Amino acid sequence: YTTHYSTSSATMWGAILLWSFSNAVQTLASPATGFYTYITTLDDLAIVAAHVSIFYQVYHGNDVPRDLDALTMVLHFGNILKGIIVNAKLGPWVIMVMTMMGDIQQFLVLLVFFLFTFYCSYHALFRDVT
Protein backbone atom coordinates (compact mmCIF):
# COMPACT_ATOMS: atom_id res chain seq x y z
CA TYR A 1 0.00 0.00 0.00
CA THR A 2 2.64 2.53 0.96
CA THR A 3 4.76 2.02 -2.14
CA HIS A 4 2.10 2.79 -4.75
CA TYR A 5 -0.76 4.78 -3.32
CA SER A 6 -1.30 7.83 -1.15
CA THR A 7 2.20 8.00 0.30
CA SER A 8 1.72 11.70 0.92
CA SER A 9 -1.22 11.17 3.28
CA ALA A 10 -0.31 12.42 6.74
CA THR A 11 -3.40 10.66 8.12
CA MET A 12 -2.20 7.31 6.83
CA TRP A 13 1.30 7.80 8.24
CA GLY A 14 -0.21 8.98 11.53
CA ALA A 15 -2.19 5.74 11.75
CA ILE A 16 0.91 3.71 10.91
CA LEU A 17 2.87 5.61 13.56
CA LEU A 18 0.15 4.98 16.13
CA TRP A 19 0.14 1.26 15.32
CA SER A 20 3.93 0.91 15.48
CA PHE A 21 4.05 2.91 18.72
CA SER A 22 1.40 0.69 20.32
CA ASN A 23 3.32 -2.39 19.18
CA ALA A 24 6.51 -1.00 20.75
CA VAL A 25 4.66 -0.26 24.01
CA GLN A 26 3.33 -3.82 24.02
CA THR A 27 6.86 -5.16 23.54
CA LEU A 28 8.23 -2.99 26.35
CA ALA A 29 5.38 -3.96 28.68
CA SER A 30 5.59 -7.70 28.04
CA PRO A 31 6.83 -9.88 30.86
CA ALA A 32 10.30 -11.37 30.68
CA THR A 33 9.20 -14.55 28.92
CA GLY A 34 12.23 -14.78 26.67
CA PHE A 35 10.15 -14.27 23.52
CA TYR A 36 10.98 -10.57 23.24
CA THR A 37 14.68 -9.87 23.42
CA TYR A 38 16.63 -6.63 23.57
CA ILE A 39 17.03 -6.84 19.80
CA THR A 40 13.25 -7.01 19.39
CA THR A 41 12.86 -3.94 21.58
CA LEU A 42 15.51 -2.03 19.63
CA ASP A 43 13.88 -3.15 16.39
CA ASP A 44 10.51 -1.76 17.48
CA LEU A 45 12.06 1.49 18.69
CA ALA A 46 13.87 1.89 15.34
CA ILE A 47 10.57 1.37 13.51
CA VAL A 48 8.84 3.98 15.69
CA ALA A 49 11.69 6.48 15.18
CA ALA A 50 11.54 5.96 11.42
CA HIS A 51 7.77 6.40 11.40
CA VAL A 52 8.07 9.59 13.46
CA SER A 53 10.51 10.97 10.89
CA ILE A 54 8.32 9.89 7.96
CA PHE A 55 5.21 11.38 9.56
CA TYR A 56 7.04 14.66 10.26
CA GLN A 57 8.25 14.91 6.65
CA VAL A 58 4.85 14.07 5.14
CA TYR A 59 3.01 16.37 7.54
CA HIS A 60 5.18 19.27 6.34
CA GLY A 61 4.49 18.46 2.68
CA ASN A 62 7.75 16.69 1.83
CA ASP A 63 8.14 13.31 0.15
CA VAL A 64 8.42 10.10 2.12
CA PRO A 65 12.10 9.33 2.82
CA ARG A 66 12.57 6.21 0.72
CA ASP A 67 15.40 4.81 2.79
CA LEU A 68 13.37 4.94 5.99
CA ASP A 69 10.35 3.41 4.26
CA ALA A 70 12.50 0.55 2.96
CA LEU A 71 14.15 0.06 6.36
CA THR A 72 10.81 -0.18 8.15
CA MET A 73 9.62 -2.74 5.59
CA VAL A 74 12.62 -4.98 6.24
CA LEU A 75 12.12 -4.70 10.00
CA HIS A 76 8.38 -5.38 9.66
CA PHE A 77 9.04 -8.56 7.69
CA GLY A 78 11.32 -9.74 10.49
CA ASN A 79 8.57 -9.03 13.02
CA ILE A 80 6.04 -10.92 10.89
CA LEU A 81 8.34 -13.95 10.78
CA LYS A 82 8.72 -13.82 14.56
CA GLY A 83 4.94 -13.51 14.94
CA ILE A 84 4.40 -16.58 12.75
CA ILE A 85 6.50 -18.66 15.15
CA VAL A 86 3.83 -18.41 17.87
CA ASN A 87 1.09 -19.56 15.47
CA ALA A 88 -0.01 -23.09 16.39
CA LYS A 89 -0.03 -24.36 12.79
CA LEU A 90 2.82 -22.40 11.20
CA GLY A 91 5.13 -22.02 14.19
CA PRO A 92 6.53 -25.56 14.25
CA TRP A 93 7.17 -25.38 10.50
CA VAL A 94 9.07 -22.10 10.78
CA ILE A 95 11.09 -23.42 13.73
CA MET A 96 11.89 -26.59 11.79
CA VAL A 97 13.07 -24.57 8.78
CA MET A 98 15.21 -22.32 10.94
CA THR A 99 16.81 -25.17 12.90
CA MET A 100 17.32 -27.57 10.00
CA MET A 101 19.24 -25.39 7.57
CA GLY A 102 21.13 -28.41 6.30
CA ASP A 103 18.10 -29.59 4.36
CA ILE A 104 18.29 -27.69 1.08
CA GLN A 105 14.54 -27.66 0.43
CA GLN A 106 13.70 -25.88 3.69
CA PHE A 107 16.66 -23.55 3.23
CA LEU A 108 15.34 -22.51 -0.20
CA VAL A 109 11.90 -21.74 1.26
CA LEU A 110 13.53 -19.45 3.81
CA LEU A 111 15.76 -17.92 1.13
CA VAL A 112 12.76 -17.14 -1.09
CA PHE A 113 11.05 -15.44 1.85
CA PHE A 114 14.03 -13.18 2.50
CA LEU A 115 14.51 -12.43 -1.21
CA PHE A 116 10.87 -11.35 -1.30
CA THR A 117 11.54 -9.18 1.76
CA PHE A 118 14.47 -7.43 0.10
CA TYR A 119 12.53 -7.07 -3.18
CA CYS A 120 9.73 -5.25 -1.34
CA SER A 121 12.22 -3.07 0.51
CA TYR A 122 14.11 -2.04 -2.61
CA HIS A 123 10.86 -1.53 -4.46
CA ALA A 124 9.86 0.94 -1.76
CA LEU A 125 13.30 2.55 -1.84
CA PHE A 126 13.38 3.09 -5.61
CA ARG A 127 9.73 3.75 -6.42
CA ASP A 128 9.14 6.37 -9.10
CA VAL A 129 12.84 6.31 -10.05
CA THR A 130 13.44 5.85 -13.75
Describe the structure.
With 130 residues, the chain is an all-alpha fold. α1 packs antiparallel against α2, α2 packs antiparallel against α3 and α3 runs antiparallel to α5. It is flat. The mean pLDDT is 78.
Q: Which features characterize this protein?
A:
mainly alpha
Reconstruct the topology from this structure.
Blueprint: H1 10-29, H2 38-59, H3 66-85, H4 91-99, H5 104-125
The coarse overall form would be flat
Percentage of residues in DSSP E strands: under 5%
Order of helices and strands: HHHHH
| N- and C-termini, Cα separation | 20 Å
In short:
This protein has 130 residues and is mainly α.
